[in-house]
Each structure stands twice: as C-alpha cells, then as structure tokens.
Specification:
25% of the residues lie in helices and 43% in strands. The protein has 2 helices and 5 strands, in the order βαββαββ. It has a 5-stranded mixed β-sheet.
C-alpha cells in the first residue's frame, strides 16, 4: 500500500477539480480526502495500491479539462487513515 500527501497548484479551484478527483479515486478504490486550501491550491491524501496511486498522480498532473495545473508537490504520508472512503472536505 502507498500513501501520499499532495498539493496541486494552478487553476484548480472552482473548476470541479475536487469532484473529478473523487470520481477518479473511487474508480481505483483509493481512500483519503481532497479539499481546497487557497484560491489556487488543492490538497489531497491518497491511500491505495502503489499502481493505483501512481495512476492518480499522473492524472493529477493534468487535472480535468476545466483546470490548468501548474505544479504538484508530492510527499509520503505517514499518518494512518482508518476510513475506507474518499471524501471532499
């Protein structure tokens, strides 16, 4: 299992990014959360099989067609997550 904490910067708020990421994560049985941080940042924690998390990270580099991702910061996530869902906070 792989768990990462990511911060995505760019035109990523107000464009459906969180709903898009929730849909993509649930398709791959990835747990965690996504939330807006600031006007141009989205934060997420992704927990799942290494391949599935890798696939989501590749998708996040582009985002949905309505977004414009400028950068993505990825760090390993060390805290345990007991929820088996993907939530929008």
């Amino acid at each position: 299992m792989k768990s990462v904490h990511i911060i995505i910067t760019g035109v990523v708020t107000g464009v459906g990014f969180r709903w898009w990421l929730k849909k993509e994560a649930e398709k791959r049985n990835i747990h965690g959360f996504v939330k807006n941080r600031t006007e141009n940042e989205v934060e997420a924690v992704l927990l799942g099989h290494e391949k599935d998390v890798g696939d989501i990270l590749k998708l996040c580099r582009k985002g949905p067609t309505s977004s414009n991702v400028e950068s993505i910061k990825i760090e390993d996530y060390q805290l345990e997550c007991f929820k088996k869902s993907f939530d929008i906070l």
